[in-house]
């Protein structure tokens, strides 16, 4: 069965973006970049990967899931299909757009993920945002957090509001880089 992997950059105080969706405070240069891009090259937008020569041959992911706000970051720059090398599914009840390898859907995210997990293929990348992550929390098999050495103070939390219901994940690996970025990976205990 395919895994749903929430792979995301996060501040020390638990935010994946600033209040208006800002993410430029996350470190985009440093010793962590080569190592992370080697393993997670599939998560680099198609045009940026092509320009930087980042390989997407790892085959870790073949599908990316996004909420509308996460997806819409590129629209002001004319980027309609940011991850053309992946199947892109964007969840929105009110908006639509068409693009290469892009599907915008009002379908239930949980039902969609359950159906995707039953299909053949590589892992499914949950790109964001926090509200979608909260909706899909029970479906997440693996968390990969790129903790950046920065405090936001406010913004979009790693998980949007959800009821108090502690769930334990097991750490399967942590790498600390000189840049201060810490890459930590966790899985649900049943998946260990």
TrEMBL record:
Q: Tell me which InterPro entries the record gives.
A: DHFR-like_dom_sf, RibDG_C, Riboflavin_Biosynth_HTPR
UniProt cross-references to Pfam families, sorted A to Z: RibD_C
Q: Which GO BP terms sit in this record?
A: riboflavin biosynthetic process
Can you give the residue ranges of the Bacterial bifunctional deaminase-reductase C-terminal domain? 4-183
Task: Name a GO molecular-function annotation.
Answer: 5-amino-6-(5-phosphoribosylamino)uracil reductase activity
Gene3D superfamilies per record: Dihydrofolate Reductase, subunit A (3.40.430.10)
Return the protein name.
Answer: Bacterial bifunctional deaminase-reductase C-terminal domain-containing protein
Organism, scientific name: Microbacterium hydrocarbonoxydans
